């Protein structure tokens, strides 16, 4: 009996050894693969130059990411916003990570340019991100990138100029703004009280969409264009009249956001619409002559809408052609994390709701943080349709034609509606 037991144990031992030699755990290839260092890769990322987070902030964060992930090299490219979309479309797989503006998501999805990441963002994270930021990266209920830049436009004003004019508070309606501008001009406090970014570029489409929204307008309804909506015409008349009356800076049809910042920060305008970043820079002695006199308020409205501001939300997406999607997503997660957003809250407010209760974030700008909670209630999107790019280009032309007095607002928008109908087919 003892011999039988010994024989059985020996057999079991031999079988186990053989299994160990041939099993997965002993596979020399598998073992070395699990223990070897991550592969060295290089990923490329495309960003924009102006507004939102600065190049220095992004480069600093990228260097920190590389330090934490020495196997991943990141090459960054910065281009003006005006060529960002075109650069993406013609890159032909040249980037792993791309910056996507809110109205481009649908187009990029249809063109198969960006990867779906719905399953990569947890429910907890989704619940902590502002709906406007999430919506910028969604199409047909699927997520195609991580929200990153959470931005809207505000009304900025020069406190000292308003005080000199006897104006006690910033305007709450466009009618009040026009009345204030007339007082400022009549008292010769400033030649052109308000300045806008109305150059034939996306900046113009943004401002027009914002103003039209405050007049109760819309550009698309049930997937169909309605650009000659009466409220849109009314908004364009308001814009045109402000130039005709000499209240808006005559350079506005050639200005982008940085030009607006320059004019306002040099003390040559009492009012301006711009993104969050201008608040910090207009209060920077190195960049501004009006430090301490910068006010920020909710965008004015009308009887139809108390206010309206545009969703300037942008996200970071993995290019469909990326050969290193995992590393690209790791980089995206690093830039969109709360640590980065908290550190740079002065440049752009976080996408994370929870950070708005963070003492350090509030301390960067209590006035702005508190205002944003109200302004976000009036957030509108530019049309989220695959043909938005062409609509925007044609809209810029039509609106500029009217602003320069070469067409009536009605004629300009009626012609645009005809073109928009063809685009949507």
Automatic annotation (TrEMBL):
Per the UniProt entry, the signal peptide is: 1-26
Supply the alphabetized keyword list: Signal, Transport
Record keyword Repeat present: no
Which Pfam families does this one have? SBP_bac_1
Decide whether keyword Signal is in the record: yes
PROSITE patterns tied to this protein: PROKAR_LIPOPROTEIN
| Superkingdom assignment | Bacteria
Entry similarity comment: Belongs to the bacterial solute-binding protein 1 family.
**PANTHER family for this protein:** ABC TRANSPORTER PERIPLASMIC-BINDING PROTEIN YCJN-RELATED, ARABINOSE-BINDING PROTEIN-RELATED
Its recorded name reads Extracellular solute-binding protein
Q: Which organism is it from?
A: Cohnella silvisoli
């Amino acid at each position: 009996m003892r011999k039988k037991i010994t024989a059985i144990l020996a057999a079991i031992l031999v079988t186990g050894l053989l299994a160990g030699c041939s099993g997965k755990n002993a596979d020399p290839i598998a073992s070395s693969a699990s223990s070897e260092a991550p592969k060295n890769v290089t990923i490329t990322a495309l960003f924009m130059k102006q507004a939102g987070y600065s190049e220095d902030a992004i480069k600093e964060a990228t260097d920190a990411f590389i330090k934490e992930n020495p196997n991943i090299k990141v090459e960054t490219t910065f281009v003006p916003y005006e060529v960002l979309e075109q650069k993406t479309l013609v890159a032909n797989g040249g980037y792993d990570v791309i910056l996507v503006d809110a109205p481009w998501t649908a187009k990029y999805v249809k063109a198969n340019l960006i990867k779906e990441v719905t399953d990569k963002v947890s429910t907890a994270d989704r619940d902590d991100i502002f709906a406007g930021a999430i919506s910028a990266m969604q199409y047909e209920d699927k997520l195609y990138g991580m929200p990153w830049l959470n931005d809207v436009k505000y009304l900025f004003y020069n406190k000292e100029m308003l005080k000199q004019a006897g104006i006690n508070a910033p305007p709450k309606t466009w009618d009040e703004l026009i009345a204030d501008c007339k007082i400022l001009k009549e008292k010769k406090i400033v030649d052109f009280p308000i300045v806008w970014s109305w150059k034939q570029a996306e900046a113009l489409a943004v401002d027009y969409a914002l103003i039209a929204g405050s007049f109760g307008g819309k550009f698309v309804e049930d997937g169909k264009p309605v650009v000659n909506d009466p409220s849109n015409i009314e908004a364009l008349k308001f814009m045109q009249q402000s130039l005709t009356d000499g209240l808006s800076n005559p350079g506005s049809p050639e200005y982008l956001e940085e030009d607006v910042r320059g004019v306002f920060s040099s003390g040559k305008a009492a009012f301006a619409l711009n993104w969050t970043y201008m608040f910090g820079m207009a209060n920077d002695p190195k960049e501004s002559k009006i430090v301490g006199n910068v006010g920020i308020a909710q965008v004015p409205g009308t009887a139809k809408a108390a206010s309206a501001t545009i969703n300037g939300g942008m996200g970071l997406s993995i290019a469909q052609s990326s050969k290193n999607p995992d590393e690209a997503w790791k980089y995206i997660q690093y830039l969109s994390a709360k640590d980065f957003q908290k550190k740079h809250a002065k440049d752009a407010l976080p996408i994370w709701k929870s950070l708005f209760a963070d003492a350090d974030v509030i301390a960067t700008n209590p006035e702005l943080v508190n205002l944003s909670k109200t302004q976000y209630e009036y957030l509108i999107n530019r049309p989220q349709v695959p043909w938005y790019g062409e609509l925007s280009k044609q809209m810029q032309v039509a609106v500029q034609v009217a602003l320069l007095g070469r067409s009536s607002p009605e004629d300009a928008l009626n012609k645009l509606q005809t073109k928009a109908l063809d685009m949507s087919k």
